[in-house]
Design a protein that fits this description.
Blueprint (H helix, E strand, L loop, with lengths): L5 E7 L8 E3 L2 E4 L3 E2 L12 H6 L9 E5 H9 L13 E4 L11 E4 L3 E8 L6 H4 L3 H5 E3 L5 E3 L2 E8 L1 E3 L5 E4 L12
Parallel strand pairs: 5-6
Antiparallel strand pairs: 1-2, 1-6, 3-4, 3-12, 5-11, 7-8, 7-13, 8-11, 9-10
Length: 182
């Protein structure tokens, strides 16, 4: 089961706040995101981005994080639970940030997500746990920070997503572009 690419946890929050609440299942809706989540919509729902460009397409419908990041933070003394980093889906068995832009993740029986970019660490992380933001950050292209193990995606096909669902990776056609911050 260690090498199996799978979902470990799913989370959502109807309100704009850093942390999300773990759930038994979430429903990904094509073109919109996670039903009942504050980031649900065709245009950007991120509070800061919405003020700047409210009509911009929503490339941040679903936030995914690797369980290895949460394990690492725990081993470094941070009490971080599923959903605390604002993620909708926690995965195991794959390096999300190493996948190229446009990669499609088939999750469960029907849901399909397309990776759009890297998640930048939010300033609110240090309010959750002092020192958390630098602990989760890593330098990417042009020294722009990104959340280790954190990627953003948009929903291509509607479906329920549950813990233990298998994840299948479909690589985009070459040439592959690395994920950039969105």
């Amino acid at each position: 089961m260690q090498d199996c690419k799978r979902v470990v946890a799913v989370c959502l929050s109807p309100k704009h706040r850093l942390s999300k609440t773990p759930a038994l299942e979430i429903r990904a809706v094509a073109g919109l995101g996670i039903e009942g989540d504050a980031h649900y919509g065709t245009t950007t729902q991120h509070r800061y981005d919405k003020r700047k460009a409210p009509d911009r397409p929503n490339l941040r419908q679903v936030h995914l994080v690797e369980s290895a990041l949460l394990d690492d933070l725990g081993s470094r003394g941070f009490d971080v639970r599923f959903g605390d980093l604002g993620e909708n889906i926690v995965t195991a068995g794959m390096s999300l940030t190493a996948l190229p832009e446009g990669t499609i993740l088939r999750i469960g029986a029907e849901a399909r997500l397309q990776l759009t970019g890297l998640r930048e660490p939010c300033v609110l992380l240090d309010r959750l746990r002092p020192g958390l933001r630098p602990a989760v950050g890593q330098k990417g292209q042009g020294d722009k920070p990104f959340l280790r193990g954190g990627v953003m995606s948009r929903v291509l096909a509607t479906g329920f997503i549950r813990p233990h669902d298998e994840v299948t990776i479909e690589m985009p056609a070459p040439p592959h572009r690395p994920l950039g911050n969105v």
